[in-house]
Every structure is written in C-alpha cells, then in structure tokens.
Amino acid sequence: MSRYYAFNGDADGLCALHQLRLVETHPAILVTGVKRDITLLRHIAGRDGDTVTVLDVSLHQNRKDLLRLLNSRVSVRYFDHHQSGELPGDPLLEAHIDESADVCTSMLVDRYIGGRYRLWAIVAAFGDNLTKIARAMATEAGLNPQATAAMEKLGTCLNYNAYGESIEDLHYHPAELSELIMPFADPAGFIEQSDVLARLHAGYEDDMAKARLQAARRGIAPGIVVLPNEPWARRAIGVLTNELAQSRPDTPHAILSPKASGGFTVSVRVPADSPVSAADFCSRFETGGGRKLAGGINYLAEAELDRFVARFHAHFTAH
Question: Is the pLDDT of residue 229 over 60?
Fold first, then answer.
C-alpha cells in the first residue's frame, strides 16, 4: 500500500501539507509542481488500497483522474477551496471542500486537525492574500505586531516561490521546500533557524522591484498589464497581482506573463462585489479556473488575447 500527498506548491498547499505531516508521521510520496501545475492526480497511478490526500488543487481540473483513482479502489481525501463542480458520490472520497471567499485550504486542514498548528494556517492565509483574515487570526492567537509581520513575510515569500513556468524558474522545488520546513512545528523556528526565508526574500525584492516598475507603465487596457518574457516576471506574477488587488481593492486586475513556449499565463483578481467571480470568468477559457476573488488561466494563446481583453472589459470594467 502506498500513501501520497498531492499538493499545490504555493504557500497554501505547502502549509496545508505541513500541518497534516506534523500530525500524520507515516512515510508518503509527495506529488507537486509549480503553482499552475494543478492536474496533479495524473501523476499517480494508484492501486487498490492506496491512499491519496489532495491539497489545494481544483477537483474540477482533476475530475477525470480522481474518478480513475476511485474506480481503482484508491481512498482519496480532498481538501480545497477552489471551484469543484459536483462531487463524485463515492464512499472512498472524503471531501473537505469550501468555496467561500474567506477560507483557504490550510484553514480547512486547521479545522480538520483541531487547530493544533494554527500558526502555519496563518502563514498560508497571508500567502493566499487573505490579509485581513490572517491578521485577525494572528490577533486571536496572541501574536504581537512583530511576529505577525514575520508570518506575513514568510507567507508572501513561500507563495512567491511557487510561481514559474517550470521548476527551473523557482528558487526551491516545492517538495524540497516541504522537507526543509518539516522539522519546524512553529513558523518562528523556521524563520530563525533556516536561511530559506532570507534567500527567498532577496529574490522576491529583486523581482518585485522590476515588476512594480512594469506595472506602473500604461497597460494594454484598463486593469490589464502584460509582463515581459523573463523568469523574474513569471516568478513575480502572483505576488504582483495580489499587491495590486490590495492597493486597489475596488478595481479588477489581470496580469499576463508570456510563456517561453508562446502564449500567456494569466492571473486575475476581482473586487468582493464583482458581479462575476474570478473563477467563473477564467473558466470560460479552456485552462482557466480559481475561486471567487482570485482566478487564473494556465495557458492563453496569443490569438486569444483580444478576446480576453474584450471579455475582461465587458464583465468587469464596464460595470
């Protein structure tokens, strides 16, 4: 019998995994990738009696392989907050899915394990751009402003690390990062005793300085910025989109980063009162999806750019 954890390589996926691994100490195979590599279940063959835990990747995007695993008598636990669609009615599926705008996957795991490692859920919430919620959780946990700021910095940098077209774009492979985090039940210990955050923050500062300069220039349309075809831009796209959403919360934003092989990766953020959710909008494109306030398109062909701009304007900026 084999055990697997399939997790998104971003802050939320990492922190959700870490909370579970602190409780469940059995050996397991880690399956992950860059932020946009979300069809992770395709990497798991699965046999009768195997167990798979899925963290922070859309059930909708993994439905075909989820059904294949269930049909092979594989037990699956699924923790996620992204668009899922109808849940399969199979007794081997244990689903912990909440698509509310004010939760992330690490918060769902926090509920599941009774809050035993809540500080890591706070780190994840910061990384997932749930800043107000994360600060409220930090206050409830008794963290002082300095400790809260450290949690926010860690969450932001863990999230930043996941963005890239390939593993080669990243500073750390997410599976490697998980192993480096593993000895630490408290994020403060990881921050103080490891040089990982210092390395990530240095890369973050360098990349974001370039990205902010690019975003300050005139976009191709209101709310839409296209970054250059550079590794730093592919790393910066997620954090830049979150920054813009925080600084202008009443404005929809779309950041497009060219892929080395052609086309674009797209990150979308929308206001809380948007008439169309980011997930619904992005799902109208073949590789799109997400959640209410944040969505993305893994591949947008160059020929689709004009259609994207027109639809973005029609659904968001025209209202």
Answer: yes
